[in-house]
Every structure is written in structure tokens, then in C-alpha cells.
Amino acid sequence: MVSTEIILEKLLEKRDWHLNMLKNLEFELVLEPTEKEVDEIKKLKLDAIEQLKKIEQEIAFLSSQNLT
Q1: What is the pTM of this model?
Q2: Where are the domains of the chain?
């Protein structure tokens, strides 16, 4: 049980990191980036969103395991 809690804590930290990255990428778009930078930002945002989805699935799975 303790190891699951540690894993959940690490997953939540990763989730927070990706959410913060998304916030920073949104801010970068406000700074009038070049077209190349906009494309890179979009790629990074998509990657961060995909990682968030995976992390949320892992959290949900581990949380459901803790309930049973």
C-alpha cells in the first residue's frame, strides 16, 4: 500500500509538471513567436497533453486498485 501511495505521489508530481508546461507554452504564444516557434510549441503541447492522458489513466488505475 505504501509503495502505491509513493507511485501515486510521483504521478501527481509528473501531472503537475506537465500542466505547468502547458501553461508556459500558452504564455509563449502570447509573446508573438515565429511560425517555426509556433509549430514547435504546438508539437510540445500535443506531447504534454498525451503524457497527461497517460498519467491520468495510471492514476485512475492505481486509485481503483487501492479501493478494492
Answers
A1: 0.84
A2: 2-67
